[in-house]
Write a structure and sequence with these properties.
The chain has 2 domains: about 50 residues; about 60 residues. Helix content is about 70%, strand content about 0%. The chain is built from 5 helices and no strands. The longest helix has 22 residues. The protein is flat and about 50 Å long.
């Protein structure tokens, strides 16, 4: 049974390419304005808020909003997201080193790895959502 799943799974990509099934080109045109509305809705609660958290959210969502209106690809990642992913990649290296050195227990390692995974999902939330292998 596992062999059947693996073989079928391996042939799915070439089959999709051969049949010329792929992303719906109209999808990006629908996602961009919808994403922009959601970003604007989130930003709308911030004018009455002050502080570092509100400023960070203004910057984060402002950068994402800028990409939706100015980039050739309305789903492109912002500079903020790209830098965030670089930071996460470095954190993963340090976490692996900590585990290998015995500085953290395996359960602590797994918990922190999960936190980094969620951070990566968040960093990719406005752009490409393909996770890289670690």
């Amino acid at each position: 049974m596992i062999g059947t799943l693996v073989i079928q799974g391996l042939t799915l990509g070439p089959l999709i390419r051969r049949m010329k099934l792929g992303d719906d080109p109209g999808l990006a045109h629908e996602i961009a304005p919808a994403r922009k509305r959601l970003i604007e809705a989130g930003l709308a609660i911030l004018p009455e808020r002050a502080g570092a958290a509100a400023d960070a959210l203004r910057f984060r969502y402002g950068a994402a909003g800028k990409v939706t209106t100015e980039a050739d690809d309305p789903q492109a990642m912002s500079e903020f997201d790209e830098l965030h992913l670089e930071m996460i990649a470095r954190q993963r290296v340090v976490l692996h080193d900590m585990r290998d050195a015995g500085d953290v227990a395996e359960d602590v390692y797994r918990r922190l790895q999960e936190e980094l995974d969620w951070s990566e999902v968040d960093a990719r939330s406005f752009g490409d959502n393909v996770l890289t292998a670690t």
